[in-house]
Amino acid sequence: MIAIIDYGVGNLFSLASSLRFLGLETEVTGDKARLEAADRIILPGVGAFGDAAAKLREAGLTEVIRAQAARGKPLLGICLGMQLLFDVSYEYGEHPGLGLVPGQVKPLSEALPQGLKVPHIGWNRLDIQKKGDPLFRYSREDDYFYYVHSYYAADCEASTLAASEYGIPVTGVVRSGSVIGAQFHPEKSGDAGLRLLRAFGEM
Fold it and tell me: Which residue of the set 79, 91, 120, 156 is catalytic?
């Protein structure tokens, strides 16, 4: 069973619908026992880093997520959910993350060439740097994914599996052990996104 963490942040319906379309048993839950019982966990998220991190703490889920990751359970963070996996974010201040992937979350506005818009919204090809990773077993060289974000993961070269070009190489996918992050929205990325979710569902 794949548990999608419900903590009041994220587009849960479309993500759950995509997983169920693939025939994957899926449950949207904020219950600690159900997260512990799950085979895989997905951490979604939209909005501001600080607010989302606070909601995880208030729901008592921060340590549950860390404990499940320490057990080696596959964990996928999507968009803001990916950013929460890192050590720290500099979105409207400085906020500690889950510390599951080394690196920082920084504003795109300080890194992009002049003329490129923030937020970064649109379809970008994913340049897979570590093609042998099981997450990409169904992926193709010409796969495009849908991004919506104003901050990006930096100082995480060792864990970066793939990136997309938007004036700079934008970190697209990271992995540290069983912990995976995708900056784009696979549930909004058509067939390419479904194939990525299918691969995660088989991990």
Answer: 79
Residue from 95, 120, 149, 185 carrying the catalytic annotation: 185
How distant, in Å, are the alpha carbons of 48, 74, 106, 182, 185 from that of 89?
A: 10, 23, 6, 16, 20
How far apart CA 79 and CA 53 sit, in angstroms, is 14
Backbone angles phi, psi at 170, to 5 degrees: -90, 125
Q: Report the C-alpha gap between 49 and 11 in whole angstroms.
A: 15
pLDDT, tens only, 166-199: 999 999 999 999 999 999 999 999 999 999 999 9
Element housing 193 (H / E): helix 190-201
Tokens linked to 73: 């359970």
Distances (CA, A) of 200 to 40, 75, 120, 167, 189: 8, 9, 25, 29, 15
pLDDT computed for residue 8 by the predictor: 84
Catalytic (active site) residue 79: yes
Residues β-bridged to residue 162: 128, 173
pTM of the predicted model over 0.85: yes
Q: Active site includes 185?
A: yes
Helix-then-strand count for the chain, H and E: 6, 14
